[in-house]
Amino acid sequence: MNQRIPVAVLGCTGMVGQKFITLLENHPWFELKELVASERSAGKTYRERGCWKQPTPIPEHIANTRIQSPQEPLQSRILFSGLDANIAGELEEQYAQRGHLVVSNARNHRMRPDVPLIIPEINGSQIELLRKQTTYQHNGGGIVTNPNCSTIILALALYPIWQQFGLQRVMATTLQAISGAGYPGIPTLDLLGNTLPYIAGEEEKMESEIYKILGTNNFKISTTCNRVPVLDGHSICISLQTQQPSTLEGLMHALEHSYADLNLPSSPAQVLQILTDPYHPQPRMDLQAGHGMTVSVGRLRTCPILDWKFTILGHNTIRGAAGAALLNAEWMTSNGLV
Amino acid sequence: MNQRIPVAVLGCTGMVGQKFITLLENHPWFELKELVASERSAGKTYRERGCWKQPTPIPEHIANTRIQSPQEPLQSRILFSGLDANIAGELEEQYAQRGHLVVSNARNHRMRPDVPLIIPEINGSQIELLRKQTTYQHNGGGIVTNPNCSTIILALALYPIWQQFGLQRVMATTLQAISGAGYPGIPTLDLLGNTLPYIAGEEEKMESEIYKILGTNNFKISTTCNRVPVLDGHSICISLQTQQPSTLEGLMHALEHSYADLNLPSSPAQVLQILTDPYHPQPRMDLQAGHGMTVSVGRLRTCPILDWKFTILGHNTIRGAAGAALLNAEWMTSNGLV
Amino acid sequence: MNQRIPVAVLGCTGMVGQKFITLLENHPWFELKELVASERSAGKTYRERGCWKQPTPIPEHIANTRIQSPQEPLQSRILFSGLDANIAGELEEQYAQRGHLVVSNARNHRMRPDVPLIIPEINGSQIELLRKQTTYQHNGGGIVTNPNCSTIILALALYPIWQQFGLQRVMATTLQAISGAGYPGIPTLDLLGNTLPYIAGEEEKMESEIYKILGTNNFKISTTCNRVPVLDGHSICISLQTQQPSTLEGLMHALEHSYADLNLPSSPAQVLQILTDPYHPQPRMDLQAGHGMTVSVGRLRTCPILDWKFTILGHNTIRGAAGAALLNAEWMTSNGLV
Amino acid sequence: MNQRIPVAVLGCTGMVGQKFITLLENHPWFELKELVASERSAGKTYRERGCWKQPTPIPEHIANTRIQSPQEPLQSRILFSGLDANIAGELEEQYAQRGHLVVSNARNHRMRPDVPLIIPEINGSQIELLRKQTTYQHNGGGIVTNPNCSTIILALALYPIWQQFGLQRVMATTLQAISGAGYPGIPTLDLLGNTLPYIAGEEEKMESEIYKILGTNNFKISTTCNRVPVLDGHSICISLQTQQPSTLEGLMHALEHSYADLNLPSSPAQVLQILTDPYHPQPRMDLQAGHGMTVSVGRLRTCPILDWKFTILGHNTIRGAAGAALLNAEWMTSNGLV
């Protein structure tokens, strides 16, 4: 692939937009050429806009790129969308009509029957839904989505078990990082030395999206979502009951060996890693596994009520957002849909 | 009660010991006269010892009290024990043999058949077990215990439901504060902007103690304990299934109206309070309810797997430790056992 | 004072407004009767408004009080203003013209020559400036202000030294709490495990207000303001040079004995307290001294460049804001100006 | 350099030891072959020891390396010492007598006249002191040290100014990260939502070491050291007076252009970077500059008392500890002393 595919980031000033910029730096297939944000930001260079919150500097060529408004035409084939849900619905649709492939992290089109909601390792074949979109048929434009951050992390841990043993019931209690709430997000006054027992809409999203991804709702799922003072990294405490009898060895084997390597630039060597020290996984130490694309599984043990209990951890803005969309774009490209 | 009962604090330098000192200040029934700690602290005044970590100053008369070693004889009738588990077992036994009533927060004697493990609002009548202790029969000495901090908070929320509807299954996932780990406890390097998925021994204690308190093990309980960067206040996310059919109204009524007021100095006006704002309970705002003796209940809703889900919060070093022992001593006193 | 004076809180939904409500609960002289906030809040009861961020519950009678808009006439004689600076200037002026005494924490009128900018222990006599205000002469209305939070805390530590030895140079570096930034204030993403080296406008305010309070600018002051992840409590590291020769004993004597007790409901037993443990003062442990009205002084030692170095700590929303205004109102009342 | 030089890490289980392991991974000149820790750790593989606190996994070949005790002979030419000060004095001396070059981060030998205390960019020529060490003359063994973390960061910002304009007075107030206190270091109970106004011994070290590095004590320095809840990154608020007249432009030019590139594997492209956004430098965003080897300078402005004020930030365990020692070893190697 000598010529890299030109791409744009929609919502480039937000937390997910910034992560797109970081992950696209030196990407072997995609070249970030255009930045789009609201009228308020348009016209400024990215450096002038002054929104950067990443621990590494703004890539130099991006810093000097002028931010475009949603009205301006774009040259890029693929648009990575980190748009806010309150505008993503309409804007992404418009871009698709103009012939762009929108790879979106926004929730708006996720449940549309003709929109792929994919995690390539799990339901990659659903990418073919793209061909059903009217825009794709007319001008090659369309929309591809990834699930909500907590859903992706949960789904990656559930899928091998579901595939091998079937699932009957899944209870999940999350401890979610603040970066998932965007910027400015949660005031320090609300979260310093504190936790919040509720994240609006999150439990509903987790429960409905997981069914669409697996293509079934023949098991029950119950979630409770908490916000904790952690920068990046969602932890999820899971109890589950399998449909077929399952053993600890069988479970560990399924978790470690179910996923084939996709051989895409953003796919990790291990989709899941099992940790045996009971003090793991923890955000501070296990978040960077697989450059943020590996989900860590720990504390695997029997549950006195359902069958098994364990705790998982994933990077919410990489595996759960920008990295997820990037992997979707790579998957779409490798499947000849671009 | 014109003459206050002289009391001592064992393990006076630790976090629970400090909380005993704070709560005993101006207590109407008990007068803190003696302080006991290890050889390393003995001989110093409490101020010289330099261990104080409370946000209010050391009470003046305590600051100048000389710390005694465990070898020295004590005058006090009641000894509040905040001793570490590695020494509490033997020392508490010795004090009982010397004729003292040890009201202990340590775990060592909790499961002994002749030792009351009580939460007065729930199983206060078990205080009569004290009469079975050989020491109590001989010289009036004995040991009374309260459960582990998470267990107390959980038990207070479960009891009205268990009493009214019976329980079949209880899943509990905790977000626990650092003060429960004592001092120095958890290094900042391990918990700043982080969470830990494991607390050694905690899940076992919660599961076994709850059965002893309720006097039955005919329901199943499964717990997962996490440590979060919160100073004080354990949150617990609960899903449960009742034995009898239950309604939301019935559940709320049980939670709000089951507990009679004990009319003891440390008993709160409300043992449980129900909060309807979904962002509550949270440690920063709801911890001080009932001077730390009220447990808050929020997010009450149906569970797709078991029957009900809700989140509770209690003060781990007050309702879950020093305040619990103090209430036990008040209960013991009002029952004529002192 | 059999009949308590009716008072109102302007900007009742903000952080300072909430602190006013907390401190006015059970006040012996003042009775909180009216609440005022913007149009957006007006008409709702205080509980419905849902802004409460204090660790204690909303006082019951306040919870059910209807919030009034700035257009509605008020019955209260004294209005405590926690208004935002962008509206305080005009609104406070209007209330004065309507005959109310506005005791304000806002910065807008602080530097006006006819407006008292007072800390009663330091320049209480300046309260007489009130008589020069046209409104006060016409209808008894007027404006009284307290300095910025950091300025108050700094001024209380400097004043005894300035009075006793004179001052030549003062270098001050602050570590300021987040509550000073109001709500929502600083995003968790900006401050969790982080510090910020700048607080807009703060250094200028500290440098100019201190001169007005002391009525002189014949010494030099240089400040650097940092934001740190602390909920309440501003720490200030000070180096200073006195005009007259000074000794450590003389300095300590001045700090401990300069302030007379004002005998007002909100004045603390000790305006300053000296701590000798080098690990103090610290926000977590020393903030509540004097119910938040005492400033703590620690680490007093010689400075290799100027004469003396020490670190102080004060409660920014009590001594530095709501408590400061309340003390001003008490002072004004006891001086027969109400 | 086809053959990499074999090196060992002394005190391999501590925080600095772990950082040495991280930085030596894939080092072009040095190959980490041996690990040394106390008797308690000796005999275990590094993975078994279970001390790892870094956000990246233990390098695989290190994880399986057996930890050696200080008694065992070492093959490595260079030993990186992250030993605790209570044992470093004697042990480092012993290793030097056995012919090893100890490149130490410990404070014990820093002030010895024949021991280089160096920051290569500032006083690299002092490396020649090594030749005066008796052990070096006999068997090539010796000791080379780097300053304390805060001192290095401060010295790097002061040196260009001192060199260009001379210095008369330097006031420095620090906000220091917890990683500087080692592990377990500071309990969460002491630092969550809190700051500490004192770091034992730190102010003395900063004041004395800076004189040795610059080879003069003809200016005055006064420091105040605070601990803040930040994981990595020391911030220092500086006010200073130059000997010669200085301008803002001159100062900025000196800061940006004084340092030549050493062209060593660990030397950064920029030793200092100047940031103009007043909200920078801050640990969360600027710490990784130059892979942790660049010191950031911000808030440069005039001081009403001395001449200039600014705030600097440096990575305390990289530029201030392990990276400093590694750079010293590279410098020593490139100067033909190994």
Largest interface: A-B, 42 and 41 residues
What spatial form of chain A do the alpha-carbon principal axes imply? globular
CATH superfamily of the largest domain in chain A: Dihydrodipicolinate Reductase, domain 2
CATH class value of the largest domain in chain A: Alpha Beta
Number of discrete helical segments of chain A: 12
Mean pLDDT of chain A: 97
How helix-rich are the residues of chain A, as a percent range?
A: 25-40%
Query: How many domains in all of chain A?
Result: 2
- Structural class by secondary-structure content of chain A: alpha/beta
Quick structural overview:
The first copy, chain A, is 31% helix and 21% strand. Chain A is an alpha/beta fold and 338 residues long. Chain A has 2 domains: 5-147 and 321-334, Rossmann fold, CATH 3.40.50.720; 149-315, Dihydrodipicolinate Reductase, domain 2 (2-Layer Sandwich).
